[in-house]
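Anyone else keep sequences and structure tokens together like this?

Example one:
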Amino acid sequence: MQLLRIILLTLLIGSLVGLGLLGPWGIITGASIAGLVVLIWYNAATDFVLNRIGARRLTEASASNSIQRMFLGDAYKLVQAAGLPRNAFYIVDTPLPIAFSIGSARSGGRVVVTTGLFRVLSRLEISAVIGHELGHIKAGERLATAMEISLSILFSATGLRAVTRVLSFGLLNPAEPTITRMSLRSLGPDTRADAFAVSLCKDVSILASALNKLERGVRSAHWDVMEGVPAIAKLAVVNPRHALVGAHTPEESPMAHRVAEIRRLVLPKAA
């Protein structure tokens, strides 16, 4: 849906610019140029974002220790169990314990983890987190992720966030809920991805434990390398804004809601 919004908005702007410069015939020209811009942007955004946050491709050869190599083995098994193409995995050197995903199931998604994730979670808990991100990719919820993040980087660097939000009528930058008025409806995609992770890992308690640990971890960590990329906070497996809600008003904690939903899942019994 977000990708469709971006495409429609870009075509609309291109058509209006073409109309203003060339008259009625300029609509087709402007829309064509705008469509080309979206295509280039879509294909270049992922590498731009990964380079911007200092992410490096994690392979058997580039893994710096046995823990990372073990992680890759577990992750590839999950990818196979999920029925997805062989996804690529990237790592960012930061104590901030987060994970997020980019891309689609068809083109091959990319899952980004941080070194901080390995310091906070156990091997099984990390697998559950990867299962969560694969759930987002399989559901098609990460199709325009890189485009969104690249916009976030641009807006933060140029100060255009407020201006663009007005010009796009909120289509490119939907207002995030405030901490005091968090809507549990925004957790829909996350709770679906949680259920997918549980179905892969076959254990409800592992993901619940991982989410609780990550909530404490992101609450106490500094964003350092991610500070110029605010959109990642919204895409991380545990949103820091949600973690703050849990700290300030535990009775309204979105994380408590997610964990409760996880614990209500009933796994099919083995035959």
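And example two:
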Amino acid sequence: MKRTLIIAEAGVNHNGSLKLAKKLIDVAADAGVDYVKFQTFKAEKLVSKAAKKADYQIENTGDEGESQFEMIKKLELDRGMHETLIAYCNKKNIKFLSTAFDLDSVDMLDDLKIDLFKIPSGEITNLPYIKKLASKNKPIILSTGMCNLGEIEDALNVLYENGASREEITVLHCNTEYPTPMEDVNLNAMNTIASAFKVDVGYSDHTLGIEIPIAAVAKGAVCIEKHFTLDRNMEGPDHRASLEPDELKQMVLSIRNIEKALGNGVKIPSRSEQKNIVIARKSIHIARRLEKNHTITMDDLQMKRPGSGISPMDLELVLGKKTSKRLEEDTLLTFKDFS
């Protein structure tokens, strides 16, 4: 199968600190993911100063009085910080990625030569944003939290009409509640998207734990995105719904194991189990002493291991035959034993 692209979403879990951002890169590189992803925005261009926090943001920050603008303003990464983090990713042999949340940020990331763009769920109805990304002629990953099929279709059509190629678009099923309740995951919707739009699909996960992204890979996801943090107890809006370092590493290992386990779909004995065929299957054996020229009946036979003789599936070839010599009880029958 196609190797799953794994994106470790650092997001804003750096808390505005370059030092913490580098530690997050260290964790992602150690886990063996393909990309570590941050978020690129100017608070003034992303949210009005009157915008309220989401319920999960209030709960996770413990500050209902703080506005969404005030919260995210502290989490900006400027161009110099981006350049530093890109250089650090290169040093750690991991790819850098970031989600742009405004048009200027799109241009900056393009200028920094990131190799693909990620459209977050909240921007899927942002027509100028989608058109601008499509014009950049780079692969696109589209998250679809809060969406219905019609909205996904509209966004895809805008992408196609403005230069994006179907072959270079991956659509991620997603739920934007942090954390997502299990009953709201609706993982089968990922396959509905694939069927409806004939695109590669994946899954952006906000559940607690690692079992849902692993299940998504088993169901055909070619891309997995998952938030991670250094410590879930840190202050900030996204830490509590993120994986800690050991969990991220286990998720990657599990996904790679699932990729191996899915195989090519051809049902034949595997190389490792071929040696067990003779041991586990049965052959036709003699149930009691038989004299030469005895006509073999069912009462004369028993099916026993090993499977190195005549298969019980060939029973009709044995019944009614005459023995060519005396055969003792428990003899493994061969075709040379009857005439």
